[in-house]
Amino acid sequence: MVTDLVMYEEEFDRIKLLLETLRMDASAKIVFLVDKNGQQIASVGEVNLVDATSLASLTAGNVAATDGLAKLIGEKEFSILFHEGRKDNIHISIVGQRLILVVIFDERSSLGLVRLRVRKASTDIERVLNEMETKAQMVGTLDNVSPFAEITDDDIDALFSE
User: Fold this and answer.
1) 3-class DSSP assignment, residue 102
2) Closest CA to 100 of 86, 116, 121
3) Whole-angstrom Cα distance, residue 7 to residue 21?
């Protein structure tokens, strides 16, 4: 079940820290986290070198197109995509079936190292997503409680008897 999640500052900071750790551990240039609609959630690294908005939306489009290809050959999805360029490479992976993790790296790193580090980071990011979902459900439960639930008949009588 995919639901819209609310990300509070605490979760955003945790995700940014996870992305920065991934960037450093994988020797990557840039790490992005994007939702499947193409909205950038967070990014770290040499982000000023790319058009972040275009990268986010094109990545989501790439994942959507690849999902279509997967279905054509009977696969559920391709959870990892890799594009190799002359100077830079892009590793794209799906996290928690709702987010896209993009790692841009060059010759300072290797595909094997990136894949290894992405696997750990994905698990950590998914844990934060699950905590966000639990928190959203708790807040939703609290929001459904009437603000008048704790007012007693005595309180109402006292209000009108003055």
Assistant:
1) strand
2) 121
3) 20
Over residues 24-48, mean pLDDT: 94
Residue of 63, 57, 29, 34 whose CA lies nearest to 44: 29
Rounded distance, CA 21 to CA 152, Å?
Answer: 52
- List the chain domain ranges: 9-161
Instruction: Compute the residue count for the chain.
Output: 162
CA 121 vs CA 21, 80, 117, 128, 143: distances in Å: 8, 14, 6, 11, 32
Using one digit for the tens of pLDDT, what is the confidence trace for 94-123? 998 889 999 999 999 999 999 999 999 999
What is the torsional sign of CA 68, 71, 72, 75? positive
The CATH architecture annotation of domain 9-161 reads 2-Layer Sandwich (3.30)
- Alpha carbon 80 to its chain's center: 15
Quote the pTM value.
Answer: 0.80
Distances (CA, A) of 88 to 96, 114, 135: 26, 13, 38
Summarised one tens digit per residue, pLDDT across range 128-148 is 998 888 887 776 655 555 555
